[in-house]
Specification:
It is built from 37 helices and 25 strands. With 1232 residues, it is an alpha+beta fold. Strands 16, 17, 18, 19, 20, 21, 22, 23, 24 and 25 form a ten-stranded antiparallel β-sheet that branches. A three-stranded antiparallel β-sheet has the order 13-15-14. The N terminus is likely disordered. One of its GO terms (cellular component) is late endosome. Keywords: Autophagy. This is FPL domain-containing protein.
Length: 1232
Amino acid sequence: MFRRKKQSNGDLSSPPPLIELQDNIAALNDLLSETKVRVQVTGRKPNDCTKYIKLDIDTEDRMVELIRRIAELAVQGEQKAASLAAAEEDANSVLTGGSSRMNGSVASVHSDHSIHANAVFEYFCEQNVVSMIIDIATGIAFIDDNDEGDVMKMESLEFGATIKSSDTDEALAGSGSFDSHWKPYGDSFVPLAVAPTRIAVQAIQAMSILIQNVKMTTSLYLILSNPKLKDLINIRLDAYDVAEKDYVESDDYSHYSGSQVRDDNNHAATADIFELTNIFVTFLKSMAMKMNPETLQFFLSYPLHKGRRPNGNGSRSDPQFYEDVKFPLYERALQFCTPDVETFVRTTAMNICLNILRLATEGDPLLPELNSIEVDDTLDKRWSAMEFVDHEDDRPDRKTNPNSTSELPFKERLTISHFVCEPSRVQQLSSGIFTQLASLCGKIEEAVRKIEKIDHALSVCFVTIDKAKENPFPANDGDSGISGGDPSAKIPIDIEKEEKKIETLQSERIKVVKHFHGDIVSDFQDELYLLEDLLKVGLIPLNEQIIEMMFPTVIYPLILTPLHNFIRQNNREGEREQSAFGGSFIKHMSRPVTPNIPNSESDSSLAKSALFVIASIFHYIKHDVLLNLLTTVLLHPLCPEVSNATSLEQMYLSISYKDEQEYTHIKTDTYQKENNVNLYSFGRQNDGSVEAGSRTNSRQSCMFVFTPILTDIFQWSMNMTPKLDTPQENLKVNKYRRTLLSCLSGTDGMGELQSLAIYAIDAIVSTMSKDVLNNVVLAAKVHEDIEFRSNPSLSDGDESITSESTSFSQSTSKYMIEFIASLCVSAISASVTFDGMWSLRYSPIAAHAIYCSSLIDYSVKDTATKLIRHRRFEAGKFLDQTPSRLKRFSKDNDKEIDSDLMMDRVFFDPFCDGDTFVVENTSRRPGEGPGNLWDGPAYIDVMKDGNILLMAKQICEDISAKHIIGHDCEELSYRCGANSAVSYIRLDAFFTLLKDKLETNNLELEKGYKGVAAISRCSTKILESRKQGELYAASPVSEALSNLLFDEDVSSSANSNGLVPKPGDIVELVGRKPFPCVCEVTEENQSLITDGSSCVEADGVKWQSLYLVMLKKHMILAELVQGDSGGFGRIVSICPLCCLMAENHRTLDTDSSAQRLLLTHFSPEKDVPNLFTAEKLDSPREIDETRTIRSTLDIWFEDTQSATKSHKSLCSKIYRARIERGKKIRQLLVQR
């Protein structure tokens, strides 16, 4: 050790940092001597609480500053010594070939500087300051040394009983300092007196700084080898909590500057205690970061069993050997993994545990020639290998302190694996996650319940206002007490009061939704990510226990039970077990879904949160085994009968696995995947596993109830086992599958959950592999072997089931048809609004799930195509009924013509959301060059990814959006029909896509959720589009529907076969009732006029004489052919009648008899008809964006009579053209 020399003229003086360090340490010792108190153990009662050492503010401040400065000086001195040592090595390396005399002098100078620099840290260690700082944190430093009592002073705070001096072996097994001033508190010991919180915080922070910042390995060894370090690891923070509460209740609290107690059940009861907990966990993290093969000896201690020899009931193959292994750092970190601690503390503790777990899974196997786990020459091999490598310096004190972990020897990894996989520790590690998930599910349910309550109140307000608009003075019902209960009295409804109530409710709803999105959903996501990180470590014995624990704590109580209870509550057909369609699924697909109107008597919050949990798990968890078993319990035709299930108890932890070459491996997911072996036994013995001894302690045994049966069902379905080993009495029809399919299809009163069930099923279908979906969900390989207690038939005499569009092969699995049919039902749902209108709603999420399912194989794709074709037919029939619902607003006597005209208005008037046209929901790229109107077909969005944020928005969907279309108003009813038309077009385009050939080779390597970006590579017809930040997959609209939407059969630009005339063509005017008129001709249109003699200029405006003529389905403006007698005309402008609107405008000029007729043309074509002027667009048109261009033209007639006559004739032709187009639409809707 360093000894300070006496200063002389010839000696180098001590560096200033060393002098300062010496003074500070001396000052700290003096303060401790002055503040030591004598705590009498005798005479104190067992229930006496821990108290703070009473120190004045100046003493506290002085001690805090001394601890901080001492640690800072020690770190600076050590880092400077490390830097000088590195510089010395560099200098020696550079001057190797120079003069030996010069090299010697330079080395001497560097050596002197290195000695002085290292003197600071050496003096720090010589004075045992680490022990002093730790004693300050634990309170031992403030206790009089003379108060020793009769208890032997040993070196471990973790001992909970008096240690006898005869227990030599056990005494040697511990380290630290046991003191009589630690009294019984629960199952451990707590101090009777502790340092003030500020001092303890600084002391622990000083230790973290020292461990994190020392550079040389020897320095780290000196700190970690201190036996007092275990005292700090095992410090009782609850003792500080007790002391803090005692101080708050004392008379001295008036001088206290801290904040009030926040949580009686939390370590951090005040701001100071909160900081102490954070600093302490940071200290644990700093230690965990320094764990590596060389330093593991300071963290992990092996038992010394008296009278036992290796491989003789005391070897590593003996399970009892691992029961006495000590790993204080991991044990302490586990205590902070509970959900009642602060988020930062818990997350840090979980990261510590995860880093330790990863140490066990990274490394090479045990070689077979070693024959014994006890023998390990890894370190010898490492040092032998160093002899063949030209290292500049292998001195341990010259090694750089490693900042990252490296692979551990096999025996250490095996020991850590045994230690962390002990069931009690696994439960302590994972129970916090499951508890927090359950708590967050409760918060989700509460938020959903509040939203539903507000929505119900809003719906009542909306209905009240609707009724008030119809009848402002409803009759008194006699119960209100107004007017003496006279039924004839009229009670006015205060609409303003209802509107204020709506405003208040919506404001409250915004707060609930904001809290739901901002806090609850993100916290739930964080918990699942923690679970994913835990499973991703890949330690199979650990994962087996976590997966087993997840079923009774999360899967059954939070998912399965709430869903099944809700269907039992809402099933209108009683408790009878039935298929998802109650007989014929074709009949079900032909009827609408129950209206989704909030019901105050039905609480769906538990079921909605269950669906949210399902979707979240499949989105955020990627562990194959867990997802396979979860898919099995959710959607396999069979499920375990838990009440009859046989529990399997694993008497020992099967940690390792011996392969065919006798290599011993620790069981990890990585090894299982790379070698294609199944190492998940869940309590069942696997061939090839390493045998262990008999059960010695209940802590080493694991109970498996759910996972063995589910694994048996899964492996049997995947043909991994030849038969189903589970007895028949332990299996039953999977009622949870039926529940989910009922939610998906909207049967059994589950229509309220359909939109959320779509997200849940999409998460499953888009995440799981094709083999799992085909064999587990669709039961492709075992569907003939499954024996149900009742065997429902898919056909109940419905003739439509045998039709060409819905016929299936006898070999097709009925479970596949049932599942795909449920998905197809959810693709487009129909509900009824208050005014009796059908409202079709297309789900791009459901379409995404159907498309992913169709990628399984051809039979699934063929089934989905047939069912979507049928669903499109039924949706078309629903949409075809729109005019009959609108007849209440009709004023014409001819109801049949009126129906066709209504249908045309639904498709071609601006009634969609945002006052847009139906066609504007499509995208189509205009052609380039003359005669090329469109470049390819029209596309429309049909699929999009179903992420959790969208699902959360769906849960919080604004109720006002559902009720605004229910007002008794002609315009709003048309809006409902127009939006339904868009849904039908999307379904038509999706059917077009589904018929196309699919390429699935590109998806074989896709892992996790297969989104639009992945599946877009499966078909050349899919185009990606992005709207409002969301990625969609667009598909072409069918040719027949596209021709109607874009009026291609009457467009002169789209027809080059001569069937539709074009500008410049000569047409006969005789017999067509031409109406003479004039219109303004601009310079841009001057070239269209060939007969200049008929052009008149007045006041700088050129007016051209033309003839307005109706030519079949078109209106034309023609000029007389020069030299002709008037029987023929040259077309100047032509446009389809169905795209026109004519308005008769009277002129205000009393001096003129001329009358104006305003023509408006609507078309998605980029070029407007000749003479027409296009209105300016609000924003530039995208390349493939479909915009309905509005253009206008004023034509003038000689007098009012001629204008009225032409207007009446033109409107009649326009109506007929629109009626004919509407009729074509209705005919197309009802076609199969």
